[in-house]
Amino acid sequence: MSKDTISFVNINREHKIREKEIKKAINNVFQKGNFILGEEVSLFEKDFAQYCQTKFALGLASGTDALQYSLRAIGIGKGDKVITAANTFIATVLAITSLGAKPVLIDVDPTTYNLDPQKIRKYLLHAKKVKAILPVHLYGHPAAMDSIIKIAREYSLSVVEDACQAHGALYKNKRVGSFGDAGCFSFYPAKNLGALGDGGMVVTGRKDIAHKIEMLRNYGQKQKYHHLMQGYNSRLDTIQAAVLKVKLNYLDQHNKMRRQIAHFYNKTLQGVGYILPNEQKEAYHVYHLYVIRTTKRKKFQDYLTQKGISTGIHYPIPIHLTKAYSSLGYKKGSFPITEQICKEIVSLPMFPYLKKEEMEYVSTCLRSF
């Protein structure tokens, strides 16, 4: 194959297949002219709540807002502590600090890269002011929700799930996002369920949280000009909701396609020398990302670039070592597993319409490295 033939992600292939449906949905919104919290938003919210096995779903402008508003809705504020994974995207932590709360980073499980419940429990033995746990279903693999919920109940803590990379993932046959007080999703275009721009969603079984977020996203009002709280402007765009409603119909199919690609990688790369993703028996991994580990990452990526294969790193710098969060007081060596993972991880091409010959080529190149 020629150079630059295999993208890390290619959403155009999906859009080309769904082009007529997507354009029809957009045109319907255009004809109605109701672009802010139009009918398509509530219809998509209803569909997504049903899909996630929750009572309520509230559309927002981004996944980051979904996290922040969920934390605010459960009462997180200045001085409160929120436990989350050391190995996550910065948005998880930004949602905590934006409320004046303090993120408590916990090292992760070395096989799933998700929060280690034993380390949470160890921290809580001597902790004060902890109000919530914010587990991250990283790369599309569910966190150990049974253990996390059990710990939260023992210590009277709230749980908000960061499911921004895990649309459709299951833990013991239950959708992620439906375990905690609230679950948060991002519809960034490259996600398993992606919009044509930014978008986010909170799902919850709690009426009080749903009502609060409904007001928070729309200037703190339930009725126009009747402001009951200091809110924001963070509404899921009606056009994006219309597009997402169409694409939700194909989410399970696309997740199965991702899993087939992952299984092909697993089979053909087994025993070659890379650390491959580990799907736990109670989990249904949806492979937003297919992440391997190699101790020769720089040479590995340079080699694949020469072969015309794009890769990514999710994420190269741990939160506690970023300049933005140097004030948290952590230092190099605080989270050894996270730090080791961040030095070695590489994300391979992964999207539903990756062609068989492309998978084979990626695999052949990895075996010959």
Report mean pLDDT, rounded to a whole number: 97
Order of helices and strands: HHHEHEHEHEHEEEEEHEEHHEEHHEH
**Widest beta sheet: strand line-up:** 1-9-8-5-4-2-3
- Annotation field: number of helices: 13
List keywords for this structure.
single chain, 369 residues, Aspartate Aminotransferase, domain 2, Aspartate Aminotransferase, domain 1, 2 domains, three-stranded antiparallel β-sheet, 13 helices, 14 strands, 38% helix, globular
General description of the model:
The protein is of the alpha/beta class and 369 residues long. The protein has two domains: 13-248, Aspartate Aminotransferase, domain 2, CATH 3.40.640.10; 251-368, Aspartate Aminotransferase, domain 1 (Alpha-Beta Complex), CATH 3.90.1150.10. Helix content is 38%, strand content 15%. A seven-stranded mixed sheet has the order 1-9-8-5-4-2-3, with helices on both faces. A three-stranded antiparallel sheet has the order 7-6-12, with no helix packed on it. A two-stranded antiparallel sheet has the order 10-11. Helix 2 runs antiparallel to helix 9, helix 3 (39-51) packs parallel to helix 9 and helix 10 (251-269) packs parallel to helix 13. The longest helix is centred in the C-terminal third of the chain and has 19 residues, at 251-269. 45% of the residues are buried.
Can I get a quick summary?
This protein has 13 helices and 14 strands. It has 369 residues and is of the alpha/beta class.
